[in-house]
Amino acid sequence: MPVGYGEGTAYRPPHIHFKVFIDNKEIVTSQMFFSDVEGRDGFNDEYIINVKKADKILKGNYNIVLPDYNK
Ligand SMILES: [Fe+2]
User: Fold this and answer.
1) Among 54, 18, 49, 20, which Cα is nearest to 33's?
2) Which of 50, 55, 69, 70 suits 9 as a labelling partner, its CA being 20 to 30 A distant?
3) What does pTM read for this prediction?
4) How far apart are CA 60 and CA 21, in angstroms?
5) Could you tell me the distance, in angstroms and rounded to a whole number, from the CA of residue 71 to the centre of ligand 1?
6) Which of 68, 66, 51 is nearest to 18 (CA)?
7) How much distance in Å is there from the Cα of 3 to the middle of ligand 1?
8) 55 Cα: distance to centroid of ligand 1 (angstroms)
Protein backbone atom coordinates (compact mmCIF):
# COMPACT_ATOMS: atom_id res chain seq x y z
CA MET A 1 0.00 0.00 0.00
CA PRO A 2 1.46 3.39 -0.94
CA VAL A 3 1.79 6.19 1.58
CA GLY A 4 0.84 9.84 1.24
CA TYR A 5 3.40 12.61 0.89
CA GLY A 6 3.73 16.36 1.26
CA GLU A 7 2.54 18.57 4.09
CA GLY A 8 -0.32 20.91 4.86
CA THR A 9 -2.38 21.91 1.84
CA ALA A 10 0.18 20.17 -0.43
CA TYR A 11 -0.44 16.79 1.23
CA ARG A 12 -1.20 14.01 -1.29
CA PRO A 13 -3.08 11.06 0.20
CA PRO A 14 -1.92 7.54 -0.76
CA HIS A 15 -2.47 6.93 -4.47
CA ILE A 16 -1.20 5.04 -7.50
CA HIS A 17 -0.36 6.79 -10.76
CA PHE A 18 -0.98 4.88 -13.96
CA LYS A 19 -0.82 5.30 -17.72
CA VAL A 20 -2.58 3.35 -20.44
CA PHE A 21 -0.87 2.88 -23.80
CA ILE A 22 -2.38 1.48 -26.97
CA ASP A 23 0.00 0.80 -29.84
CA ASN A 24 2.68 2.74 -27.96
CA LYS A 25 0.42 5.81 -27.86
CA GLU A 26 -0.35 7.24 -24.43
CA ILE A 27 -4.15 7.20 -24.11
CA VAL A 28 -4.81 7.89 -20.43
CA THR A 29 -2.74 9.26 -17.55
CA SER A 30 -4.47 9.29 -14.20
CA GLN A 31 -4.27 8.15 -10.61
CA MET A 32 -6.37 6.14 -8.21
CA PHE A 33 -6.90 6.87 -4.53
CA PHE A 34 -8.11 4.77 -1.64
CA SER A 35 -11.26 5.04 0.46
CA ASP A 36 -9.62 7.36 3.00
CA VAL A 37 -10.23 10.29 0.60
CA GLU A 38 -14.00 9.71 0.51
CA GLY A 39 -15.78 13.01 1.12
CA ARG A 40 -12.52 14.95 1.15
CA ASP A 41 -12.55 18.26 -0.77
CA GLY A 42 -11.05 17.99 -4.24
CA PHE A 43 -11.43 14.22 -4.57
CA ASN A 44 -14.07 12.73 -6.80
CA ASP A 45 -15.31 9.29 -5.72
CA GLU A 46 -14.73 8.08 -9.29
CA TYR A 47 -11.01 8.06 -8.51
CA ILE A 48 -11.35 5.72 -5.54
CA ILE A 49 -10.41 2.06 -5.63
CA ASN A 50 -11.90 -0.04 -2.84
CA VAL A 51 -9.60 -2.82 -1.77
CA LYS A 52 -10.23 -5.90 0.32
CA LYS A 53 -7.78 -8.12 2.08
CA ALA A 54 -7.59 -11.44 0.25
CA ASP A 55 -5.27 -13.93 1.90
CA LYS A 56 -1.99 -12.01 2.15
CA ILE A 57 -2.70 -9.34 -0.46
CA LEU A 58 -5.05 -6.44 -1.04
CA LYS A 59 -7.36 -6.85 -4.02
CA GLY A 60 -9.49 -4.29 -5.81
CA ASN A 61 -11.03 -3.44 -9.14
CA TYR A 62 -10.83 -0.07 -10.82
CA ASN A 63 -12.68 0.93 -13.98
CA ILE A 64 -10.78 3.02 -16.51
CA VAL A 65 -12.82 4.82 -19.14
CA LEU A 66 -10.87 4.93 -22.39
CA PRO A 67 -11.57 7.61 -24.99
CA ASP A 68 -12.24 6.53 -28.55
CA TYR A 69 -8.64 7.06 -29.59
CA ASN A 70 -9.27 6.20 -33.26
CA LYS A 71 -11.05 9.53 -33.85
FE1 LIG B 1 2.07 10.90 -6.72
Assistant:
1) 49
2) 50
3) 0.81
4) 21
5) 30
6) 66
7) 10
8) 27
CB distance 57 to 51 below 8 Å: no
Residue pLDDT, tens place only, 10-56:
999 999 999 999 999 999 999 999 998 888 888 888 899 999 999 99
Contact 25, 65 (CB under 8 A): no
CB count within 10 Å of CB 38 equals 11
Confidence tier at 67 by pLDDT (50, 70, 90): confident
| Distance from residue 16's CA to the centre of ligand 1 (Å) | 7
CA of 67 to the centre of ligand 1 (A): 23
Strands 25-33 and 51-54: unpaired
